[in-house]
Amino acid sequence: MLLVQKFGGSSVATPERIKGVARRVVETRRKGCRVVVVVSAMGDTTDDLIGLARQVAGAGPGREMDVLLSTGEQMAVALLAMAISSIGERVVSLTGCQAGIITDETYTKARILDVRAERISGELDAGNIVVVAGFQGVNRNGDITTLGRGGSDTTAVALAAALGADLCEIYTDVDGVYTADPRLTPNARKLTAISYDEMLQMARLGATVLHDRSVEYARHYGILLHVRSSFNRHPGTVVGKQGCGF
Ligand code: ASP
Ligand code: MG
């Protein structure tokens, strides 16, 4: 079984949380799964980096913004890989470029054109857990690009498609997909299942639980998504062909 597990920024916001994610990943590995982990930048790192850029340059050139913003995820993969290694599992971290994520030239909102997954496959074959930096890729000139805010979801789904993963788990700070944002609407209801089309509609209307491009990608390649909390074991929401007709 090959699993892609994506952990968002709030799931890795502190050293303790990173250690918690490491334990969860190792648990999956020890059940005998091959695991590719995609991780976002810690907590508010991306916002902080954008703030720094504004202070020095107003709006920085897109190319330089992407060099800057990609560092958030690079930091997170290294720390998570160290935490996994300290529990005694073999692990390697990769940037988007090292992972073979090829994008177009649109800085700050690049589209994935191709995933050259040989490096990841090789690392999996060598027995490693592979931790990939979300939200970033490389364009045909060899320059770093980023995929737009929330883009790590899209990295995870693209890797799941390229590797033929059995499942793509999206770990976040809510228990799944709700009828409305549960952090703002107390009587929002959690859905056990939702179709790609329903999810896409919600994402386009502003639901931030999944990046809209990740849902388009999942629908196109038929990738089953499981959106769930990194803070508990409750089953979350399955996003697939079948919805629940809410
Ligand atoms: N770190 C990036 C952001 O804050 C990408 C992501 O979280 O998916 O938008
Ligand atoms: Mg997100």
Q: Please, what is the average pLDDT?
A: 96
**What is the element string, with H for helices and E for strands?**
EHEHHEEEHEEEHEEHHEE
CATH superfamily of the domain at 2-172: Acetylglutamate kinase-like
- Total number of beta strands: 12
Strand order of the largest sheet: 3-6-2-1-9-11-12-10
Provide the structure class: alpha/beta
Q: Major β-sheet, in short? A: 8 strands, mixed
CATH architecture of the domain at 2-172: 3-Layer(aba) Sandwich
Strand content: 15-25%
| Ligands and ions found | aspartic acid, magnesium ion
Instruction: Tell the overall outline.
Output: globular
What is the rounded distance between the termini?
A: 31 Å
List low-confidence stretches.
none
User: Radius of gyration over alpha carbons?
Assistant: 17 Å
Q: Tally the helices: what do you get?
A: 7
Helix content: 25-40%
The level-1 CATH class of the domain at 2-172? Alpha Beta
CATH topology of the domain at 2-172: Carbamate kinase
